[in-house]
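retry 2 of 3: previous attempt timed out while embedding tetrahydrodeoxyuridine. Reduced batch size to 1 and resubmitted. Inputs unchanged:
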Amino acid sequence: MKAEHKLLPLAKQAAQRAYTPYSKFQVGAAISTAQGETILGCNVENAAYPVTLCAERNAITTAVANGARPGDILEVVIFVDTEEVVSPCGACRQVMSEFMSQQANVTSYNRHGESKTWTVAQLLPDSFSLL
Ligand code: THU
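retry 2 succeeded.
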């Protein structure tokens, strides 16, 4: 187990704001950007289930709305209050690949403070890109 990441308390705070009346599965994400900002995201569900937005994409797209561009998302920290460490879904991996360096880190924590860290390239090898 690693020392607590400085973004972890913020990811926990974001998880508490998750809107999850359907799954009750609360995810929080905290990211740092090249603009020096820290931006939070939580999952936001909808009665039309596929409309649901994941915490990671919520944070990344909010960062873009605040000025971030490809390569500017420096790191993503995720928190889920579960026994196992959760790994990001496929759609979020593709969006990470668009806005993060392939070597940038994504770290996910569980309720016990255990974590896994991956690079973006490890999460999505040979990703689709038009850039
Ligand atoms: N979810 C995330 O927010 N991030 C992930 O990486 C995996 C899944 C959310 C979507 C949905 O609200 C709930 O978790 C259950 O799938």
